[in-house]
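Entry for nicotinamide-adenine-dinucleotide complex. Fields follow.
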Amino acid sequence: MKHETFDIHYPPIQLGCEKTSILYFDTIQELTEKLKENTSNALIVTDDVVFHLPSLKDFFAGIPTETCLVLPAGEKYKTIETVLSILERAMKLSLTRKSLFVGIGGGVITDLLAFAASIFKRGARLELVPTTLLAMVDAAIGGKTGCDFKGYKNSLGTFYPASKLYISPEFIQSQSEDEFRSGLAEVFKTGLLFSEKLVLLMQDEKDALLNRDQRLLMNIIKRCAQAKAQVVEKDLTEKNIRMWLNLGHTFAHALETVLGLGTISHGEAVAWGISRAIALSESIGLCAAEYREEVFSMLKAYNWSTDKIHPKCIELKIENCSEKLIEAMKQDKKNIDSNISFVLQRGINDSIIEKISEDKIRSILS
Ligand code: NAD
């Protein structure tokens, strides 16, 4: 049948803002002083743990109750219902697309609030104050937003970068040990992908880092931000090199799904996932055994599991763990066909994406 085709061509879409400015502060006091300057009509969203941090008491005390939405903390609440509750509050306050949404919290809050801001009246203004190491070095940077859905991590979402990030490493002092180490796993990932210097810092300054030395943390956060900036400036919407940032994540997301979301921290899952990705790289002849050993020895130095089966699966007596993990990986939204893709490494700062057969995957999980 004869038919005509007419194409409509679009200008590049501007995702919320032209650039993200990262403002670094030595202290939380300095950060909140600056934040207060333009948040008088903003919708502020946080979680109930961050809301009660002594370091933010004065800041929150100065905000009218109705413009501050305090959500329950934790991955469990990273749901579409929570996104809707943010949107309902925004509607109740008669906000417009010119209004400012400010998210203060860890990666759950920054992901959720950014998602809500991106769909509210097709995009409100967005600024973020990441308060966990993980959110400072990863989640809040680069515009990925979202929530979990039907048990799958981040299955709903958009790309919508914040116009400003306010960062102070002082927030990290009040993080639990587990949550802090979770952020360190993302730092390690960033180092393996883009910055040998970061890996060396983690190796040489391990004690100072584990003691949360603030100058060292600032140095590390800035290096991670620079590394992530270089990636998202080239590939914001994850068409190519941004996919590398998923090193360890295909395994990690599957593990989190199999264990039940929130059972172990995201970073703990990522660290184990990195061990599996490097083991897989070695098993298909991509990297040398020496490289796998170097990565494993760093993971072990930080007390992360490099076992084929994560100890939590054994503790929770999960049967057929490897099959369940493979099933969960097949559902991963990044697999555009039935093959499972992985970020693998030939060596440090040398990554590629490969589709791998189920048998090969099984061999490094059991
Ligand atoms: P989180 O937001 O759940 O924070 C962890 C816990 O720490 C929460 O209970 C929180 O209330 C508490 N907390 C926050 N700041 C604190 C502080 N300063 N002191 C004490 N406690 C504090 O989790 P997270 O580890 O920050 O982030 C994990 C989330 O980030 C996951 O949902 C993950 O999918 C997402 N993520 C997103 C991206 C992205 O590119 N968008 C990248 C990596 C991770």
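NOTE: The radius of gyration is 21 Å.
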